[in-house]
Amino acid sequence: MAETSNPPAAANFVHDLVVEHNATGVFGGRVQTRFPPEPNGYLHVGHAKAITADFELAREFDGACNLRFDDTNPDTEDTSYVDGIIEDLAWLGYPLDREPLFTSDYFAQLADWAELLISNGLAYVDDQDGETISEQRGGYGKPGVESPFRNRTVDENLELFAGMRAGDFDEGAHVLRAKIDMQHENMQLRDPVMYRIRKESHHRTGDSWSIYPTYDWAHGQSDAIEGITHSLCSLEFDSHRALYDWYLDQLRELGVLPFEQPLQFEFARLELTHTITSKRKLARLVADGVVDGWDDPRLPTLRGLRRRGYPAAAIREFCDFIGVSKTNSRHEIELLESFIRTRLNKLAQRRMAVLEPLKVVITNWPTDAAGEPVVEYVELKNNPENAEDGTRTAPFSGVLYIEHDDFKAEPPPKYYRLTPGREVRLRGAYFITATDFVTDDAGNVVEVHVTYDPETRGGNAPDGRKVKSTMHWVSAAHAVDADVALYDRLFSAEVPGAETGDPFDDLNAESRTLLHGCKLEPALAATAPGEVVQFERLGYFAADPRTPLLFHRTVGLRDEWANIQKRK
RNA sequence: UGGGGCGUGGUGUAAUUGGUAACACAGCAGUUUCUGGUACUGUCGUUGGGGGUUCAAGUCCUCUCGCCCCAACCA
Prior knowledge:
Radius of gyration: 31 Å
Distance between the termini: 43 Å
Strand content: 15-25%
Structural class: alpha/beta
Shape: elongated
Number of strands: 25
């Protein structure tokens, strides 16, 4: 992966496993993985971890990773999600290099294999409803009850399944079940359902099928069809592994597996503090209008993060760094943010923007022949981290805006910024000293009067005197107005819903603050859609991809002064 | 209730497989600095608990405690 100052990737138990497999000849050195999203929602950071795990493992061992849409449930899936997922995946850094694969492409093969299992007495058609089947399954430590239909003849099962396949029955009339063991201690093996009847139209196969395979029946077999070797999934599927193996074992013994039998490995999904990664709950945030859509910058969706300005490379580096383990854990969102800052610090162009403007009048600033304040142009570095980014100029004149927080009539302890009688530097321009200020009826400072020292042009005093603070500024006459959205945690609790069980109880009502009338230096008007720049001393801000002069705060700078105030 | 998985600083991830517990984030203190940013330095503090084997235990044995997952015709 690209250059980075971050430390190398954490070790990864799956990686170690593959090394061992290659050493012992399992899979003959082949590594084939797959990323199998269900097209029923958009990708989020949690998927990013799975994606990097799958794709990078394959890349490292010169294998390949398939994108396979696990589209076995016509009720919830849609092509718009297929397109969205492909788009987000490409943005993350994994553009499609060939046609994507679909479980639905294997429906015929899967159904044929199901018939093969039936023919061998390994599956049967059950006429009972879901509730009854569920009751008969028993419970943890409690025995299961065999279905009265469990011992139908092969011929009868074949005929019924053919009818199911042909669409002769209503939804719920029958299911196909694997005949395993109703007393198995692993509930997944108590005659799991392989097929159910659905009359819903499928986003790809339309109405050509009225039976759909369940996840368990589809997944391992799809892996086998594609020649997958290492099938990674999240921890909650560990009890499914026995079933994954059982289906494959039967097919292998019946001699129909095209490749070696794939193996399933489980790892912990990515959880972050102050956010959620449940597709269902994310969908609820969108549906309820808590956020503006799937690409709301407060969402952990890939498209939300992209709009927020998170560089894809930084997300990949983060995933690489946290590694792959089996421990249930929740990473601090601050760790992700530190990766974002590290990368942006190197890349982002520096600009000056005043979010909450305070007017500053330089009382000794010269005027020209027409009586207008003189305008000078000062040169500023685009990025102190990278000299190749060069410089730009910004207009400077007698009336400016500075950040409201950068002046205090009565300075608190350790305050280094502008205050009556104190001299500070305006970045790249001049030293100024506050002489006076104007307040409104409520006592708020609305204007500051200062004098400047003409000798300090460029930002340095010939006599070598120092100032405690350098501040950003924008010339009032040249300022470009913009809207800026500041973001805070979407959920105020570290673990949303930890208290009440409902994450929505922990929603942060102030997760977004929209500022109008922010004052930008002219160069900022040319920011490309989606580009992330650093507003000096404030943070990184992404230009909205669609709306000009709207910026989203990607992440703030580390702020020592804020910490000092917080400690107080 | 039966089965499975997992416990390492505040957080997360490592530890040559029995050999100095490390890395990052966060915190704290400082140096540098035309961003209270960056960079750099220092500092803080940990193997869930008990017992055992061993010259030596995060690692092996044993007991114990805690957390997570599984009883959809979702994935």
